[in-house]
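TICKET: design request
STATUS: open
ATTACHED STRUCTURE:
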């Protein structure tokens, strides 16, 4: 003979089993979102900004290799290359631009740009102003 307590336990067990099956069935019908191979994740490359220092190395041409600051207007000046925009570019992109500019003076120049002082573009800086102990721009 079953007691009321036993009947409640049977109904509760049946409810739990039914709920579990329905829950798992709902998971099976969930659509999965996958990225296609043509979609690339956002790039997190460092962009050169005013105040950065860039070390420009021209292979086999030490006379035009040097370290220069990026001016407040976002440009750099090196021997044989004047007023070349650098702001907002990656070091690789800037190196290719310098190679194009030097190509009129040097046959097949190979340029490497290394950022040595990091400030970044204005959009990625925090400005400390007002009555701060040390007003300054900080890179993110």
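STATUS: resolved
RESOLUTION: sequence designed for all positions
ATTACHED SEQUENCE:
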């Amino acid at each position: 003979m079953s007691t009321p307590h036993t009947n409640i336990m049977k109904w509760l067990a049946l409810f739990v089993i039914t709920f579990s099956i329905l829950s798992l069935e709902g998971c099976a019908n969930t659509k999965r979102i996958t990225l296609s191979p043509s979609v690339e994740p956002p790039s997190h490359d460092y962009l050169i900004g005013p105040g950065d220092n860039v070390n420009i190395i021209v292979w086999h041409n030490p006379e035009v290799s040097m370290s220069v600051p990026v001016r407040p207007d976002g440009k750099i000046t090196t021997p044989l290359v004047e007023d070349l925009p650098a702001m907002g570019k990656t070091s690789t992109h800037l190196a290719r631009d310098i190679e194009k500019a030097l190509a009129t003076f040097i046959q097949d120049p190979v340029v490497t740009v290394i950022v040595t002082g990091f400030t970044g573009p204005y959009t990625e800086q925090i400005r400390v102003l007002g009555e701060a102990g040390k007003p300054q721009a900080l890179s993110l």
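CLOSING REMARK: The chain is about 25% helix and 25% strand. The chain has a mean pLDDT of 83.
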